[in-house]
Design brief:
The structure is a homodimer of 184-residue chains. By secondary structure, chain A is mainly α. A two-stranded antiparallel sheet of chain A has the order 1-2. The first copy, chain A, starts with a helix and ends with a helix. At the A-B interface, helix 4 and helix 5 of A face helix 4 and helix 5 of B. Chains A, B: It is a multi-pass membrane protein. Chains A, B: One of its GO terms (cellular component) is plasma membrane. Chains A, B: InterPro entries: CASP/CASPL, CASP_dom, CASPL.
């Protein structure tokens, strides 16, 4: 513990690293929340498919996430981000033990920011398509497919929630890391 | 200058704030780049419209960004982010003068992260729709409108570039701020 604080260089007051330990612990808990959110989103979207009772046998009435490239991107993004979050738990635990660490916090801010952008990108792109599926667009002649594939649409819409919770958690994680850095 | 460094609390070595001044100057330059990118994107998308030679007078053959809610969101997001960037220049200049500042850097990281998420959201949602406009989707019966509105589509696609440059700049800005904080 002391070696971790000395690694960071100066460690003038004992109270500050203690405060950072609280921040690091919160960081750990929030990463668990984000893992649940993003993994849940990936699974919810990845397992979504709907078979419609088909009257004409030669037409395939089935909807799944692979039909829309944006939804595939959403599943991949959520999968990668949740895997990253699991790996990042190692650094998070390290910060609970070595609450004075600086370099690893900057590294964590970097990767957290990249992953937040990646997750936001996947979630927003999917949200744009879900919105289109619900509302359609008369000017572009894009019909609202949700009237047909109701359960598929509900599943896709619901899976966005976990992803956006993940984005919010990343926002808080970055602020917490910056706060911990400023207190070192 | 000295008062700014003392505001931050400890200021043990003179070399570090000097390094931070370089970082703050880079921060300022990059914000200018991001302003050009996001404002350019907002204007490019906001002024895009295409009139097609119409054979049937009663059908309106015109495409503009307001036809697609996602593109409206894109213009609004880019407009708000570029306005934020102009305001943030004040803090950026402050950091060049007071290179030891901590609290304002944490504040800047917070708002930069929020704005990055907002910009990424707008850019990705618009990219999903642009992709759809180019490729269409056979499974959802959404046609590729770009075959019809070629110049509108080119304009919309091009306007994404400035926005994504803005996202990259935000990523660098957040890392630079974290680096400056860790060196304080």
């Amino acid at each position: 513990m002391k070696s971790g604080a000395s690694e960071a260089g100066e460690d003038s007051k004992d109270s500050k690293p203690k405060g950072n330990r609280g921040i690091s612990f919160l960081d750990f808990i929030m990463r668990i929340v984000a893992i649940v959110g993003t993994l849940g989103s990936a699974i919810a979207m990845g397992t979504s498919n709907e078979d419609l009772p088909s009257f004409k046998q030669f037409i395939r009435f089935k909807a799944e996430y692979k039909d829309l490239p944006t939804f595939t991107f959403f599943v991949v993004a959520n999968g990668i981000v949740s895997a990253y979050l699991v790996v990042s738990l190692v650094l998070s635990i390290l910060h609970i033990v070595m609450s004075g660490a600086r370099i690893t916090r900057v590294v964590l801010i970097f990767f957290d920011t990249v992953m937040m952008a990646f997750l936001t990108s996947g979630a927003s792109a999917a949200a744009a398509i879900v919105y289109l599926a619900h509302k359609g667009n008369a000017r572009a002649n894009w019909i609202a497919i949700c009237q047909q594939y109701n359960s598929f649409c509900d599943r896709a819409s619901g899976s966005l929630v976990g992803s956006f919770i993940g984005v919010l958690v990343f926002l808080l994680l970055i602020i917490l890391s910056a706060l911990a850095l400023s207190r070192n």
